[in-house]
Amino acid sequence: EVQLVESGGGAVQAGGSLRLSCTASGFTFDDSDMGWFRQAPGKECELVSGMEGDDTTYYANDVKGRFTISQDNAKNTVYLQMNSLKPEDTAVYYCAADWAQALAKHRECWGQGTQVIVSS
Question: What dihedral do alpha carbons 54, 22, 83, 74 form, nearest 10°?
């Protein structure tokens, strides 16, 4: 079974940084297009960042230049480095084993998640 465990969230001031981690098991991590979603209170789930094939990445416009997705295949872990955080980034963040399939199955903001709170 697919297991995803997010961690690394917390409360920070605007301008601060956090690095989220997602440790995965139960699938072929190296061949998966891992992604990160988030859902703010009262808002819809949105795709924040995701792998696209082997050599490209996607970033939502409002996080481009501030967030960086990466993965460590040896650790089966995907990261989301978040810099210059804004209050608008406040949300619960979720990772997905395949972000496109997660969207198709309406499982894009699903699981434990990790909460990020950014204060101004």
Answer: -50
Q: Which structure tokens are listed for 13?
A: 């001031």
The 10s digit of each residue's pLDDT in 75-87 is: 999 999 999 999 9
DSSP letters spanning the chain? --EEEEE--EEEETT--EEEEEEEESS-GGGS--EEEEE-TTS--EEEEEEETTTEEEE-TTTTTTEEEEEEGGGTEEEEEE-S--GGG-EEEEEESSHHHHHHTT-SS-SS-EEEEEE-
Residue 111 backbone dihedrals phi, psi, to 5 degrees = 105, -160
pLDDT tens for 58-101 read: 999 999 999 999 999 899 999 999 999 999 999 999 999 999 99
